[in-house]
Structures are given as structure tokens and as C-alpha cells.
Amino acid sequence: MQKMNHTKGNTDSTIILIGMMGAGKTTIGKSLANHLDKTFIDSDHEIQKRTGVKIPIIFEIEGEAGFRKRETDMLRELLKIDNIVLATGGGIIINEENRKLIKEKGTIIYLRATVNDLLHRTRHDKNRPLLQTTDPQAKLTDLYDQRDPIYCEAAHIVVESGSLSVHQMVKYLTQKLDNLTLE
């Protein structure tokens, strides 16, 4: 499925991956960046590298609001870099300023996955502070219901991330990115 509602969209620009935690943004992003000869950056990893602590610690000390501020500051900084594939944190799109920043900068790909796939991929990951709850499936369902329409509205390309292998996904996304430049 492809959705075009913006003017950007080609393999020469910054490519921004959005989607829920566990959708495959880091895994697919690394492979896509390698294939397109771009630098891969994961915004959450950059936050951890610069603060020296894992995201759950930031959530614990500063709360979600403190983390979201750090996330926006990091996004502003990372979007100044050219020729990158940027994997964003799952909640980055809840902030309207962040949506505006990514729409201005590059081609946005929404890696969409079912709640069951997301739960399967994140069930043992203790680095997901929003899922440290008694019912992670209910939490993921709530987050998905809130965020999916926002992801869809922001994206140039929407693709189901569980339907293809990483190699097939990269090939598919490269073709979609090339098609955007022709239109």
C-alpha cells in the first residue's frame, strides 16, 4: 500500500522510518541505509549514547514528558544531517512539532505491524518502558489505536512490516521510493 500526500519522496533525500515499537524500524533501517549507501541513525540509540543511560532510566527519572522533550531536541539535531535513514522512536509522532519537522525534511515510511506481531517482537524487551505493565497487549492495542491514524497521515509510504523478509522489504521500499521520484 502506498500513500502520497506530500511533495517529497525520493532516494536522494532523508528517509524517516516511523511506526510502533517492534515494527522493525532499526532492523529494516540499517539494511535500507546500507542498500542506498546512506548513514543509518536510530534516534533512541542516539539519546541513550548522549545521556549515557537507557531510555527506561530517563522515563523513571524525568517521566515521559522529559523523555519526549529530549526526543524532540534530538530529532531537530539529527534532521540537520543529510543523506540518512533515520529510525525514530515509536512515540515521536505524538508531538505535532515532530510531525512538522519530519514532513519538512524527508520521505516518511510507516512500517505498520499488527498488535500481535508487535507483542511477539517486544515481549522480552525490558528496554520498552511503556510496556512494563501487567497487560502489555492492552497497552500496545491502546497505543496502536491512538497512533496508527497519525502514522498513516504523516507517511508517504505505508507498508506492512511483517509480510516480507528484511531483504524483500528493502527491495520493495527501494522500488516505492524510486516510484515517488517519477511521479
Overview of the molecule:
It is a single chain. The protein has 183 residues and is of the alpha/beta class. The chain has a single domain, classed as P-loop containing nucleotide triphosphate hydrolases (Rossmann fold, 3-Layer(aba) Sandwich), CATH 3.40.50. The protein is 54% helix and 13% strand. It is built from 7 helices and 5 strands. A 5-stranded parallel sheet has the order 2-3-1-4-5, with helices on both faces. α1 packs across α7, α2 packs across α3 and α5 crosses α6. It is globular, with a radius of gyration of 15 Å. The relative contact order is 0.23.
Topology:
Elements: E1 14-18, H1 25-36, E2 39-42, H2 43-51, H3 55-78, E3 84-87, H4 96-105, E4 106-112, H5 115-122, H6 136-154, E5 157-160, H7 166-182
Parallel strand pairs: 1-3, 1-4, 2-3, 4-5
Summarize the structure.
With 183 residues, this protein is α/β, with parallel strands linked by helices. The protein has helices at residues 25-36, 43-51, 55-78, 96-105, 115-122, 136-154, 166-182; strands at 14-18, 39-42, 84-87, 106-112, 157-160. The chain has a single domain, classed as Rossmann fold, CATH 3.40.50.
